[in-house]
Design a protein that fits this description.
459 residues; Fumarase C, Chain B, domain 1; Fumarase C, Chain A, domain 2; two-stranded antiparallel ribbon; binds arginine
Length: 459
């Protein structure tokens, strides 16, 4: 097929280079956005009287036909069209003839592709927001039913202090909320229209940029035509927000993987989300969180690829930018499927072993801070109390016992301020209950947060 620009060239493109140059095999994902962008452009050309109303209707109905043929599976953009923009233009001309050749008046593929990607990203971000809300809701439900379930809290992967399981889960709810906010901010910048920047300098054709922007639902337009076609910062922001949500998904995945080990036994996988081993009949593998953890690397990779892609690229459009598509397409697909898989896992794939959880917090020294705080309550300076308790811990470890196994007389040898009531403070339930500082793990703080989330998530 002759190229649109072929008159300027004597020879045809080397077939390998033709393939190398093409983006049709991946940018056809933008087909609906490309058609919408063209329809808005044509309406505008008619409004500014660059083309006649009848030419406009002819082109628009041609574009609508292409859209329905695509949706009905009768048309699929394919090589030898170089990219989706040429593919639609070529198809339009073949459908409606000469009038179709007016479609590209006053625009370039540079502002066109920038518009298409932004439309596509905006739609993806809106879908992602819905998926995150679903994930938050499933975490919320699990949290709401586990306010009084205790779980060991860790720092450095060493037992630190016991927590309300709900508090632990609500920590993820917070992270995912920040992710939502981040995507919202990215969306506001994505929602800026570059159409009308043309190749880089604007156009002498009478266009109305605000009209096309409004038609396509953009909030504003790029102020500078060169800038409009010269950056992919919005793609990077999208992938960066995606990399961060993947880091949160990967964190919770890792915890689930640990929780379902025999060693932890804090939870088990239901049959809905676990897979077996081809060899070892006893196995129930946490493939879902492992895959999510694994896929995090892809998204980080895409971020690196895009950052490197824009580095040192001079103004204005350069073909390097064609490389923006696969990373953002794959990122959107990867994070959407990971968020969804995690939602299902939380909703129906995980069962906490509540008995193991409550036993585990009874059999460690994670109440050591409370032993020290008991002394603080008796006016002992914290640092002194800390040292005293360090000695008590050592004493217990040497004897293979826990605080609760000590006699009060033994404790008093370490500090006379210890009294019988100390053992009440050391009960894990009371340990958790007492951490009532704002945002702490006490049951009343957690209940307050549960109520806040209920309102925020409209549950
Ligand atoms: N396929 C190209 C891309 O994705 C479209 C823009 C091409 N512009 C150009 N001046 N060659 O970036």
């Amino acid at each position: 097929m002759a190229k649109v620009w072929s008159k300027r060239f004597d020879k045809t493109l080397n077939p390998f280079i033709e393939k190398f140059n093409a983006s049709i095999c991946f940018d056809r994902k933008l087909i609906l956005e490309d058609i919408d962008c063209s329809i808005a452009h044509v309406k505008m050309l008619s409004k500014t009287q660059v083309i006649s109303p009848s030419e406009s209707s002819k082109i628009i109905s041609g574009l609508e036909t292409i859209k329905s043929e695509y949706l009905e599976g009768k048309f699929f953009p394919n090589p030898p069209s170089e990219d989706i923009h040429y593919s639609i233009e070529e198809k339009l001309i073949s459908l409606i003839g000469e009038t179709g050749k007016k479609l590209h008046t006053g625009r370039s593929r540079n502002d066109q592709v920038g518009t298409d990607i932004r439309l596509w990203l905006r739609k993806e971000i809106d879908n992602i927001e819905i998926l995150i809300i679903d994930l938050q809701k499933s975490l919320f439900n699990l949290a709401e039913s586990n306010i009084y379930t205790l779980i060991p809290g860790y720092t450095h992967m060493q037992r630190a202090q016991p927590l309300s399981l709900a508090h632990h889960l609500l920590a993820y709810l917070e992270m995912f909320h920040r992710d939502r906010e981040r995507f919202k901010e990215v969306r506001s910048r994505v929602n800026t229209c570059p159409l009308g920047a043309a190749a880089l300098a604007g156009t002498k054709i009478k266009i109305d940029r605000n009209f096309t922007a409004a038609e396509l639902g953009f909030e504003k337009i790029y102020k500078n035509s060169i800038d409009a076609v010269s950056d992919r910062d919005f793609c990077i922001e999208f992938v960066s927000a995606s990399a961060l949500i993947m880091s949160h998904l990967s964190k919770i995945s890792e915890e689930i993987i640990l929780w379902v080990t025999d060693e932890f036994s804090f939870a088990k996988l239901t049959d809905k989300c676990a897979t077996g081993s081809s060899l070892m009949p006893q196995k129930k593998n946490p493939d879902v969180p492992e895959l999510i953890r694994g896929k995090t690397g892809r998204v980080y990779g895409h971020l690196q690829a895009l950052l490197t892609m824009v580095k040192g690229v001079p103004l204005a459009y350069n073909k390097d930018f064609q490389e923006d598509k696969e990373p953002i397409f794959d990122t959107a697909e990867t994070i959407s499927s990971c968020i969804k898989a995690m939602t299902i896992l939380i909703h129906e794939g995980l069962e906490f072993n509540v008995d193991n959880l409550s036993d585990s917090v009874k059999n460690d020294f994670s109440n050591a801070t409370d032993l020290a705080d008991y002394l603080v309550g008796k006016q002992v300076p914290f640092r002194t109390a800390y040292e005293v308790v360090g000695e008590v811990v050592k004493y217990c470890i040497e004897r293979k016992i826990l605080f609760k196994n000590l006699k009060i007389a033994e404790l008093k040898k370490f500090h006379p301020a210890f009294d019988d009531d100390v053992f009440v403070d050391l009960e894990p339930f009371n340990v958790v209950k007492s951490r009532n500082s704002e945002g702490g793990t006490s049951f009343s703080q957690v209940e307050k947060e549960i109520n806040n989330w209920k309102k925020k998530l409209l549950i």
